[in-house]
Backbone:
């Protein structure tokens, strides 16, 4: 077993009507400062979203969700930010259709495997 480190994670969710607060988890963001890992897993099910929220433009949602991995990877303007700064920016409260949920903490020796475990459990 490797070194056990603390990590932070947040669900990535689609909130079709921000005023109602209803949401569907579509992924997980995970940041481990000591291992210098910022990663995410997506499991966007557009058919499920369309069935639950018929008036939602699922193509637009898919485009918005697709931008998140690029920020995680540090592409574009996000490239000047450290992994921790990118995690904080992504998890900052916002009133948009695609947003991060509350941040939680945990312990892991394998951040990538933990991200897999979280997305399979939560999405």
Residues:
């Amino acid at each position: 077993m490797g070194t056990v480190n603390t990590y932070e994670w947040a669900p990535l969710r689609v909130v079709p009507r921000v005023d109602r607060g209803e949401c569907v988890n579509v992924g997980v963001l995970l940041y481990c400062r000591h291992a210098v890992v910022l990663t995410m897993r997506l499991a966007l099910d557009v058919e499920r979203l369309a069935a639950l929220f018929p008036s939602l433009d699922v193509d637009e949602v898919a485009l918005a969700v697709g931008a998140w991995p690029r920020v995680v990877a540090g592409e574009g303007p996000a490239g000047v930010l450290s992994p921790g700064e990118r995690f904080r920016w992504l998890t900052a409260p916002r009133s948009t259709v695609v947003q991060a949920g509350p941040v939680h903490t945990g312990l892991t020796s394998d951040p990538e495997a933990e991200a897999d475990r979280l997305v399979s459990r939560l999405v």
